[in-house]
Write a structure and sequence with these properties.
Blueprint (H helix, E strand, L loop, with lengths): L8 E2 L6 E6 L2 E6 L4 E7 L1 E2 L7 E5 L2 E5 L5 E7 L1 E2 L6 E6 L2 E6 L4 E7 L1 E2 L7 E5 L2 E6 L2 E8 L1 E6 L2 E6 L2 E6 L4 E7 L1 E2 L9 E5 L2 E5 L5 E7 L1 E2 L10 E2 L7
Length: about 230
């Protein structure tokens, strides 16, 4: 269906709705060209999950498809909701709000990414950190990270390695030269420090100190082979 020329700017349609600009203000229309929300905003983004972020009088808030404010304009910057949470900025600091507009993670970061699989990346003073909806998981001390396996994120800081267990919301600090990416039969993780191997649990607590030249994972019977100072296995 053709829409008669009447707008200064039109974005692409998303699920049958698109932002349009007229006389310097933005609103929304449907595919039939019917105005759903009158042009009244300084800036807008497409709807996502029935919610759109809009700017009015210099501040960002969120509206529903009827044009009603779900969260009043109050932020300097804002991102789309992902997994029920959105990053927002005030005074150059980012944090997170829930769908009711309640701050669930205080505004304290230089940048805050969208949530993915229950976790989001944040930045502060040039370092990376990780948060969940319940708060800070790993403080901004990281140089890098990546998903190592389902529910497990490999951490890197100052040339050392660690692991984050997302569902448990526990992590092994970046203190190790090498680290196994999974757990053995005892739910412990093999780590290497100062050239020696040992075991820690998912919170980084030492279970067996790093004192062996080589080790094997614990088997189903709770046994592991270790090698120390050329004396053989035992």
């Amino acid at each position: 269906m053709l829409i008669e020329p009447q707008f200064d700017n039109v974005n692409g349609f998303s699920k049958g709705v698109t932002p349009v600009q007229k006389a310097g203000k933005w609103g929304y229309i449907n595919r039939a060209g019917r105005i759903l929300i009158e042009p009244q905003f300084d800036n807008v983004y497409p709807f996502s999950g029935g919610v759109a972020r809009v700017q009015k009088s210099g501040n960002w808030g969120y509206i529903n498809i009827e044009g009603e404010f779900l969260i009043e304009p109050q932020f300097d910057e804002a991102s789309d909701f992902s997994e029920g949470v959105a990053g927002v900025q005030k005074g150059y600091k980012w944090g997170y709000i829930n769908s009711e507009g309640k701050i669930i993670i205080e505004l304290q970061f230089d940048a805050a990414d969208n949530f993915l699989a229950g976790v989001a990346r944040v930045r502060k003073a040039g370092k990376l950190g990780l948060v969940s909806k319940s708060g800070l998981l790993v403080p901004p001390i990281l140089d890098d990270h990546h998903w190592a396996a389902e529910g497990i994120i490999a951490l890197y800081a100052n040339g050392r390695r660690g692991l984050l267990f997302v569902k448990e919301e526990t992590y092994i600090p970046c203190e190790y030269e090498e680290i196994a990416q999974g757990s053995d039969a005892e739910n412990w993780v093999i780590v290497k420090k100062n050239g020696k191997w040992g075991w820690v649990d998912h919170s980084g607590k030492t279970k067996i100190p790093c004192r062996y030249d080589a080790v094997t994972p614990f088997d189903a019977e709770g046994k592991a082979w270790v090698f120390q100072f050329g004396s053989g296995f035992g």
